Amino acid sequence: MAEFDKLMAKAFHLAEKGLGYTSPNPPVGAILIKDGEIVGAGYHRKAGLPHAEIEAIKKAGERARGATLVVTLEPCSHFGKTPPCADALIAAGVARVISATCDPNPVVSGSGYGKLREAGIEVVDGVLKNYAREFYRPYFKYITTGLPFVTLKFAQSLDGRIATRSGHSQWISSHESLVFSHRLRAINDAVLIGSGTLRKDNPKLTTRLVKGKNPIRVVLSASGKLPTRRDIFTDGQSQTYIATSAKVSPKSYNGCGVISVRKGNGRLNLNDLRIKLGRLGVMNMLVEGGGGVLTSFLKQRQVDKIMVCIAPMIIGKGIDAIGNLGIGRLDNAIRLDSVEFTKSGPDCIISGYPVWR
Question: Which positions ≥6 away from 209 have C-beta within 8 Å?
């Protein structure tokens, strides 16, 4: 099905427009083609709004009959906030469906394909399957485990520092890398920092440098005691939560939310936090630090992806990006799989997936 690779790439380009808006649904793109011409296209814009397939059918009208649908994910077969897409495709008279990958959602998981085939529609699965696997990692993680996909992201100097010895850190990364960071925020449902970063930097945690939705903001604090005069508590840009094991009154922080997190071995249980964020519909989350928070997520193995922005500077004595992980031998070091290197202005961004042994 090599001739459909380019069309599937276009469908994924459409799906990207929904990143950050569709959770807990997946972002999906769809294209209807007939006699070599695109007669309809669409993408899932927001949870509760029509799915990509429905948008494409509406735009195609009667031309959908006998057409081929190229779609990034298996069409749904169940009633949710919207009717099943598989039923709509059958009613529209679509002749063939070309899909990138099956939907592992237990209420779909092949039943969408099955319904289409029973209606006499040809189904082909697996076009750009490897790309689909990467694109849908957060959704696949969330829909199969109920846990948000966690990306650990930080900027450091060549010698592994995230700040000078006095705590000065703005800005280690370049403007281009800051813009990149804001894009990451825009495609994640939540962004998390620790209380130290809140006190020192007063970050806004918004997407002001790019076009996109502001993520939910989460502050991790064992004590629950935070300075109230901080932008995330007063600017109204997005919902803010305090994740803590202490008793905290939302009134103290301008009505922000409070997530009660269990403690284990004297520290906040980050798996418990992920479970509760998942229940709030958070499909993916960006962890931006500081060093203590980054170290805790790694120690507790609550990380799915790591992205490190390395700036071409040497700081010397300063604040380490990662603290003691108790690793005594290189055999036990955390290694990354599927590593990618991206240039960002003068910086280099290294990303990959941790291999937990």
Answer: 178, 179, 182
What token pair was written down for 237?
A: 């840009």
Confidence band, pLDDT 50/70/90 cuts, at residue 295: very high
Q: What is the C-alpha separation between 270 and 262, in angstroms, rounded?
A: 8
- pTM, two decimals, is 0.90
Tokens of 179: 């813009």
Residue 114's contacts (CB-CB under 8 Å, 6 or more residues apart) are 77
Residue 168 has what pLDDT?
79
Q: Which of 3, 16, 53, 62 is catalytic?
A: 53
Q: Is 53 a catalytic residue?
A: yes
pLDDT tens for 45-68 read 998 899 999 999 999 999 999 999
Q: Are 150 and 287 in contact (CB under 8 A)?
A: yes
Q: What's the rounded mean pLDDT across residues 121-125?
A: 94
What average pLDDT is seen over the chain? 92
The span from the CA of 74 to the CA of 254, in Å, is 43
Other CB atoms within 10 A of residue 337 CB: 8
Q: Which two tokens mark 210?
A: 């790019």
Contact 77, 53 (CB under 8 A): no
Place of tokens 């380019």: 6
- Digit-coded pLDDT (tens) for 151-197: 999 999 999 999 888 887 778 899 999 999 999 999 999 999 999 99
Give the integer Cα–Cα distance in Å for 21 and 5: 26
Beta-bridge mates of residue 340: 351
